[in-house]
What does this fold into?
Amino acid sequence: AEKRTANSANLGVELNATVGHKLYDNLSASFTGAYCILGDGVNKSTGVVLPGGLAKMDNPFLTNIALNYSF
It folds into this structure.
């Protein structure tokens, strides 16, 4: 089997999904989720420094809830 290194071209796959709902005529809500499956071409040992501390680079994810008000 071929050993993968940081020189690999496989960066990974990202999955996204959004669900929205209209609550009132001028108010809607949406929920978004994203998940990234990192490939062999990403150096996972390097973390990102965030205000809460060091974030791990193992398959990062994001969730978001948004309220949109039209006036």
Summary: The CA atoms of residues 16 and 31 lie 11 Å apart. DSSP finds no helices and five strands in the chain. Strands lie at 12-24, 27-38, 48-50, 53-55, 61-69. The two ends are 60 Å apart (CA to CA).
